[in-house]
Fold each of these.
Amino acid sequence: MTYEAGSYDVIVVGAGHAGVEAGLASARLGAKTLMITINLDMVAFMPCNPSVGGPAKGIVVREIDALGGEMGKNIDKTHIQMRMLNTGKGPAVRALRAQADKFTYQHEMKKTLENEPNLTLIQGMVEQLIVEEGECKGVITQTGAVYSSKTVVITTGTFLRGEIILGELKYSSGPNNQQPSIKLSEHLQELGFDLVRFKTGTPPRVNSHSIDYSKTEIQPGDDVPRAFSYETTKYITDQLPCWLTYTNEETHTLIDNNLHRSPMYSGMIKGTGPRYCPSIEDKVVRFNDKPRHQIFLEPEGRNTQEVYVQGLSTSLPEDVQQKILRTIPGLENVQMMRAGYAIEYDAIVPTQLWPTLETKKVKNLYTAGQINGTSGYEEAAGQGLMAGMNAGLKSLDKEEVILSRSDAYIGVLIDDLVTKGTNEPYRLLTSRAEYRLLLRHDNADLRLTELGHKVGLIREERYKKFLVKKQAIEEEKKRLQSIIIKPTSEVQELIKSQGGSELKDGIRASDLLKRPEMTYEHIQKLVPAEGTLDPDVTEQVEIQIKYEGYIEKSLQQVDRLKKMENKKIPENIDYDAINGLASEAKQKLKEVRPLSIAQASRISGVNPADISILLVYLEQGRIARISAE
Amino acid sequence: MEFDTIAAISTPMGEGAIAIVRLSGDQAFEIADRLFRGVGGKRLKDVASHTIHYGHIIDPKTGEVAEEVMVSAMKGPKTFTKEDVIEINCHGGLVSVNRVLQLLLNNGARLAEPGEFTKRAFLNGRIDLSQAEAVMDLIRAKTDRAMNVALGQMEGRLSKLIQKLRQEILEILAHVEVNIDYPEYDDVEEMTHHMLLEKSAYVRKEIEKLLRTSQQGKILREGLSTVIVGRPNVGKSSLLNSLVHENKAIVTDIPGTTRDVIEEYVNVRGVPLRLLDTAGIRETEDIVERIGVQKSRQVLKEADLILLVLNYSDELTAEDENIFKAVEGMDVIVIVNKMDLEQKIDMDRVHELSKTHKLVTTSLLEDKGVDDLEDAIASLFFEGSIEAGDITYVSNTRHIALLNQALNAIDEAMQGVEMGTPIDIVQIDLTRTWELLGEIIGDSVHESLIDQLFSQFCLGK
Ligand SMILES: Cc1cc2nc3c(=O)[nH]c(=O)nc-3n(C[C@H](O)[C@H](O)[C@H](O)COP(=O)(O)OP(=O)(O)OC[C@H]3O[C@@H](n4cnc5c(N)ncnc54)[C@H](O)[C@@H]3O)c2cc1C
Ligand SMILES: Nc1nc2c(ncn2[C@@H]2O[C@H](COP(=O)(O)OP(=O)(O)OP(=O)(O)O)[C@@H](O)[C@H]2O)c(=O)[nH]1
Ligand SMILES: [Mg+2]
């Protein structure tokens, strides 16, 4: 029995990190949105690390915020500590990381969803999509409710045919013993989607009371107030520390002796796991010359004694996990509350998606998050935001948005997925971004606020503030570029005190700032600005002037990229009709169906000669059209 | 990448005394202006389109004048490719043309692929539809052929060397990346400026070494640069003619007949020679001849092999002795010509001056002794006295260009280090070095860095 349950512009399936961003984005830009999730108590649940941000990922959180997303604001409200990473390095790789109170994180997010005017949040298990003539028109739940809509976003994470593996035990389950999503996975296969089987894992949790912290090292948060969101004004000041300890020979011997009981080595696990999240048994086998591995003890929240044991991800049997824990300094008497486990799940091969995250097979259907082969909350949230934005825009007959690799890490992430696919759960790394000097943590707002405002996700008030900041940066830069600093004794003194060589002549303030030993603050002392400038403004001025040469170089590369991106490939191109394309290239091009020459040139197996031929072919079509007119 | 500025030599190699290097693309004027010094400091970007300008090409690194040239400046779209085009006309034959090309490649141009000017002409709508298919065939055929050639080279030591070098860089990159992506990971020490400088210096040295071998590779591709020198009228032009078995150079009994450098290619017993006949070296009042003499001395400096000609029927002069001095330390064959005439030369002194050089006697008029000379050249080469290097080394202009760019990139990285620029920014140039080297062996980019990261370090939760 089915029944008509309502009609919407956009339906979002799932309320994990991808789902919540998708639902909020679509609702906020004006589409009437329904969110359906298996369990309302598990909205924005963190099945693994209670932490948000870090290198590359932290920049994604800022990008999400600049585009009007929620992750940054939510973690600003609910963290237990926050740190700026890589402060000793260049500005391009700085990033924030927060330890989350995972429970309040969920509650706050749920509250936001509930209070969003255009958004309806309900509990339910989606089993089928309504697809007519290749177009998605809605969803049907386990209880027979039929919801119709113009577009649908699926964000089902690790739930698709999820199976938990713990030692010799294997059973059908979503993460953390939630109900898995089996029918939907089968249904996607019936619709013709290619699925792959991936794997990931999580470490045990232990009771804080049973830890002897005196044998560990403390890892406090920064004492400077920090925030991800450009809108945050209230800062949390009472932070909780994390703790550091190590494995040792005894731990490793124990693991070695029990390897035969590991599902990894017995062949029970078939899914591909990510290399960057190896289990402890993997680490011990692959790096057997390492005498110890780091273990971080991270509180899961303020109102819980559960502590996450980072570094000890494992799927060894429960009794072995217990013993392993107790070999570690500080954990000699530890009480394990939950065992670690591995989970296998289905993901769709992401080359089946357009860069808008709409599927090529089924129109008006979008997918985002771990279902697309990624791993990580931030990666999920970034995709969710874009998929929700595009599903919303499409339902309102507006033009969709694609971020370029030079716009944002989110652009890099999505382009990698849909152009190259992935054969392991995909994680963002700074090295994946070729323009990382442009994609900084500090300038996410400068890169993306304009766009966020244009699609309707950034409110007027914030936008105005942004414009003021932008102008202040430009003015201060201009001032420093026009003002000359003379070699007075005061100036020479200051330079010498910083270990620089004395001025021979007058020098532009901006040029003096370029010297490695000089900071904005020094310059400011010599030629003070009128009134006080916001630290956010002076930071930009300093970075933009100091690294001008490098930034310029990157911009030139981006220029070239843009030209290639502007060479569009029509969706209906017939690759079989093109003479001279190598057959491997033909096959890859037919699979990926790139939208531009730039995208085509990034497909592995498509070489420069093929690109040339493609260009000639496109031009030929253009000329043919002109002559036919 | 498409739409960047490309450069290539556009007259057939080795034909004619004037060769043209052509540049096409957005940055053609900008790049040319980096090298061109016109009369009164005029810049090409300021001149009227479709005009020709006299000036010099200088090497911006050293400030030295590399060539005297005529440059045609043509703004798009009224050009063959419809893009901005610069044509540099060089007089000095292959060597100079190549040098100009190298300088362009080092300063922002990319070496054009086979058929690329035509392709651009087409892409920019210059060529009509009927020619399109032909262009596509051309691209396929030419790139395949170029690829085969490249692959052939790749099996050699070059490929291995480049791979080794790239691996070195990759390890540095992975090390820096790990510091960035896993800042709390305490097993890897932080890469310091000092470490980076040390490693970059090593990479730089290796690239330089490779580039040095490229000079030797070039010898084999272009021929051993062989210069015939001697006083006027000793029979230099006659010698050139007998070696090429044709009357290429004018021979008269008037001293000072040859006034410019004449260039011919010939294969002597399997040894490729680029023969250069020069004006006889002597003090002279005649301006044209004096310029010729100056050029002779200059060509001499760049020679791989010298054929020093003396006149059997004339006494040794101070000029002869000077020529011996000028070629000291080089590979020389001494030829005593005009054996059919009466001896006036002091042969003991000739032996003394020749030291260990081979000595051959000839009568070019009667075609005698030429065999002996050819034997001497061949044995010099095959016995390895002439440094022609390992022929599997870099010889492809594209590779040389890439190596030069890689050298520039690593230089910039090292400058960055010395300036105290943060390591993750210096890494941009280091990555560029690695990518450029990768282009030589046709390796793709980013994945391998990530592979390296995870195999070199033990990371994860
Ligand atoms: C054991 C484990 C370990 C992990 N380890 C790491 C790690 O170390 N590092 C890391 O970066 N990431 C890790 N992750 C991944 C990280 O949790 C995910 O990448 C992220 O949560 C994905 O977000 P998502 O929104 O795509 O999916 P999820 O957060 O999983 O959300 C999926 C949502 O979809 C809903 N749903 C599913 N099926 C249906 C259906 N049929 N109908 C309605 N609703 C449905 C669910 O109820 C849920 O709300 C781990 C995940 C697990 C499970
Ligand atoms: N008898 C005799 N005459 C020779 C011989 N070789 C060359 N000659 C003559 O010497 C004269 C000069 O020869 P070239 O080859 O023009 O001499 P060159 O060194 O090129 O002279 P310049 O170009 O003037 O420097 C010509 O008249 C030749 O015919 C030889 O072996 N014997
Ligand atoms: Mg002559």
Note: The longest helix of chain A spans residues 460-482.
Amino acid sequence: MSRESIVNVVLMLGMLAVPLWAYSADEPFIITLTTRAAILAIAGVGLNMALGQGGLVSLGHAMFFGLGGYSMGILASHAQTYTPLMTWPVVIEGTSSMPVIWLLALLMSGIAALITGALSLRTSGVYFIMITLAFGQMFYYFAVSWPAYGGDDGLSIYVRNQFPGLNTLDPIQFFAIVYGVLLLALTLAGIIARSPFGLALNAARQSPARVEAVGISPYRLRLAVYVLSGMVTGLAGALFADLNRFVSPSMFSWQTSGEIMVFVILGGVARLCGPVAGAAVFIALEHFLGGLSEYWHVYLGALLLVIVLFARGGLVGLVAGQRHAHD
Amino acid sequence: MRMTEPVLSIQGICKRFGALQVSDSVTLDVQPGEIHALIGPNGAGKSTLIQQIAGGLQPDAGRVFLCGRDVTRLNTAARSRLGLARTFQVSALAMEDTVLQNAVLGALGATGHPFQMFGSAMGRSALRSKAEEALRRVGLSDHAHTQTAELSHGQRRQLEIAVALTLDPKVFIMDEPMAGLGTQGSQTMTAFLNTLRSEAPILMVEHDMEAVFALADRISVLVYGQLLATGTVAQIRNNPSVQQAYLGTDT
Ligand SMILES: Nc1ncnc2c1ncn2[C@@H]1O[C@H](COP(=O)(O)OP(=O)(O)OP(=O)(O)O)[C@@H](O)[C@H]1O
Ligand SMILES: [Mg+2]
């Protein structure tokens, strides 16, 4: 096992140990906090596929996070008022089933990623950053001005959605669901990184001309990973909404995009479990420093600066060491 | 004159960068089995011409044919899939990856199905054996697991050629394959390219005249974007205007 694999296993076991301890100590708040970290980690794993492997600096991933959130909000709000979502041409009812909500979240964020990706991937560098930011803001303002689903005030859901065989209102059981999804997301990211597609994608980040010269279109590789990345982040959005039983336009805000990027950079760009470390540290700082000072973001900023300047591999890179080329 | 159909032919290629006419109605072809050398002073427009042949740059006028097919409107990736393998003057490789990974990338491109998301790329024995064979042929087997960034300049040239080999191309386009190889390396490469021509013809930009004279079946001379002459080694050596424009001092 490589050193990074050991770090990954320790991280994932740690994320399991904290809520289990909290469960035995009867500290439901800690379980919820860890659940929050795990959900944000999923969002980061999504972004890391595009950013780490594809080199796509997207400042618009809140768009997918928000779409996942509103997929949950819209379906569940119709379910709780017993009003159909639409009656024509077919009747579509709301639902409080998590798996169905997840499917919609994946579908909506996938479609949004396909359309916005097809356009924004024609640019690169700072233009790509700005155009993804602009797309994200479009969704934000749309959500703010859409009164049917709460507009600026957001949308509250009174009961957590259901998962077959589990009591989702029990914090530890909801955590188990989230943890399972996180494992799936990491597995997907890991499989893709090693796959032939991942090899080509990583090469396209380093030298697009080389990839073209062997007959592969970098644009298509990037679009494919952008869609996958958006879908994973969208799924995280649906879980986040379920955790809070609340969705609001702030899920679409550029600050949300920025935070997701902070998890990735903090934990280690292109490191499989980087976003897990990043989200965990973020939540821990928010929890411990947030209580001491309302300016805890300053400390976060300082930490981020140190990481960017002195530890390019992020926290995971700091512990696991430099990555060596291997095959 | 040979009567066979050329593998590659370009007709009336024109390209202008502002006031600079970098390609001025260039017409040339590459016949099966030949090494066609493109020579000319620095800034003559050789690399720019290669770019237009490979598809990275659209000509203002003129056409590019690959095996009789008009590929002028196709992009680089499409031309590569039709059998055009190019190497770059300034190495374009995935520097963080290993040497073998770069070669496997070529083998993957050659399959035409790069969107395989399952299974490990390096575990694909078909890709891997093709890549290893290409590395062996250029003499990089010992460096298969080296990170590409650690290769010397000359070794990167060899890797560029190995990647091109994995494509099973119809024609090789090489921009200065000898650059930075040193005398010894240059001789090895010359011997290697000599055997390669039976696999696919080569259009080669090269400043190393010893290599050009040893290898080329035909030589084209480009000066200020214009084709000054095309001919055999003897014809070019004895061409007075070529001597004056390019070879003048060192022959
Ligand atoms: N994108 C560009 N825009 C403007 N001018 C360019 C561009 N690319 C190349 N040039 C100019 O075109 C001319 C030809 O360049 P090119 O690289 O094709 O020369 P070359 O024959 O390959 O030279 P060398 O032997 O030094 O490699 C040079 O004067 C160069 O500065
Ligand atoms: Mg050149």
Note: The pocket of adenosine-5'-triphosphate (ligand 1) is lined by residues B 17, 20, 22, 40, 42-48, 89 (CB under 6 Å).
